[in-house]
Structure formats: C-alpha cells, structure tokens
Amino acid sequence: MEFLAALAVAAAIFVFVLAIAGTDNRMRSRLDTLRGRRPSEVLPVSPSLSDRMIRPAFQAPVQQVKRLLPTSMLGKFEERLVLAGEPMTLNSYVTLAVVCFGGFVLGPVLLVLAGAIALSPITLGLLVGATIIGLLLPNMWLSQRISQRQGLIIKSLPDAFDLITTCVEAGLGLDAALARVAEKVQGPFADELSRTLRDISLGKSRKEAMRELGERTGVPDLISFVNAVIQAESMGSSVGTVLRVQAEQLRVRRRQRAEAQAYRAPVKMLFPLVLCIFPTLFIVILGPAVITIMQDFPGAK
Asked: What is the pLDDT of residues 9-40, one digit of tens each?
C-alpha cells in the first residue's frame, strides 16, 4: 500500500508538471500569426509520447469536468486567460486545475489510507489546507500573470502615447502611427497593437478592433484612450488633440503612481526594521550594559 501511495504521488507530480508545460501548439502558432509574428520554418516533427498517450488519456476526464462546470465559470476562465496573454488554452487550464486539486488532495488521502500518516486533528488540518491550496493555486498563478502583463502595459503606455501623438501631429494617420509604435515599442502592448492592426487589415472595423484591444488588456488607461479615440472619430473632432490630452493625463497618472509607491515605502520598511534591524541594535547597544550589570550584581544572575 505504501508503494502504491508513493507511486500515485509521483504520478500526480509528473502530470502536474506536464499540465504546466502543455499548451496547444496549433493554437499558439495561430495566435502568433494573428499577432504578426513569423512562424518558425522547421520540418514537421513526429508527436512526442505525451502527445500520443498521456494527453489523450486526460482529455476524457477534462471534458467531463468541463461539462460539470457552469458555462459562466468557463467564460470567466477564458476572459482571464485572454487578460493573461493566453499562456495556455482553456483545456490546458482545466487540466492544470484538476491536476492541482488531485495532487494536493488525493496524494495525502492515499498516504493516510495506506497508513503512512496517522490520522489526527493536525493531519485533518493539513488535508484541509492542501485542499484549499489545490483549489487556489491555479487561480493565484493566473492572477499573477494578469497583474504582471498589465503592469508591463501600464509602464509602456505613456511613452507609446507620446510617440502616437507625435506621429499623428507630424501628418501620419492613426493606423500608420499605431504601426510605427508597434515597431518601436517592445512588450505585450506592441503585440496587442500588431494584433489590432492585423484585425483591421482583415476587414474588421477600427472601432470594433480598438474596443477589443481594450477588452483584451483590461487596463483602465488604455480603455479610456480607446473610448476617447472612438468618440473623437464618431464626432469628427481632431484626433491629435484627443491624443495629446490623453498623453498628458497618462503622464500625470504615472507621476501619481510613483508618488503613491513612495508614500507606501515607509510602511513597507516598518516590518523589516522592527523584526530584523531593531533587535540587532538592541543587542549591540544594551548587550554590554546587561553584561556589566550582571557582573556588578551577582545576585541578579
């Protein structure tokens, strides 16, 4: 029984690593094509062992789990994956969630059933904690990817909008200015701009493509910029003036965010000072005095 439990834990860890690394290569190449990236010109390779045996074995359980989950929850997962830059497909994410739950729950349960771990209140508490971790770990990983991607986009927006404003005021059209920014700027914002321009070239209206740009990123500053540009085009006002106002507002918000981080710095430094630095200072300053007092008053030992 102990050997079976250890084998089950090892299999759960193996499948967990496989689920993290597994993505749909066809979907990734299709997205790279939409974003304007050139697909790698390599000879087709034969599918690996995981593609031929392991992944098909998990397709049926994943499909059953997807049928049990509400449609609204699956839609929420798809929206969060889009906000994270689509690091994996929905099937891969559901597989990751199932494997995390099974690895953190079934493994300890099998060890308890095999008698390797005695059942006690502490063990029950650990099982509950493992269950919570198994449920929250994929969501935490996805939230971290979303916040990291949005942070990169927010960091690149002020300079990118200044460049867009300069290009439009120099006589370029809005599409040409966005294309120039997509060439000069690096990061997820440039990828999203390239995808938006490709959607426009494929026949989608600029209004719809730019609205989808804001929805794919979820950044409030970019959404307000998109809404301002759409409103300016619909009302016939000057796009250059709108872009200049938006660029000035972004610079103000960047300065405000920097000031807010500077104000939070003393609060963040308080805990390391109290827990790490102050005790050391007290030992260095008061240590010799305590030793002298103990030597002068032997009865105080």
From this structure: 555 565 555 554 444 455 556 556 655 555 44
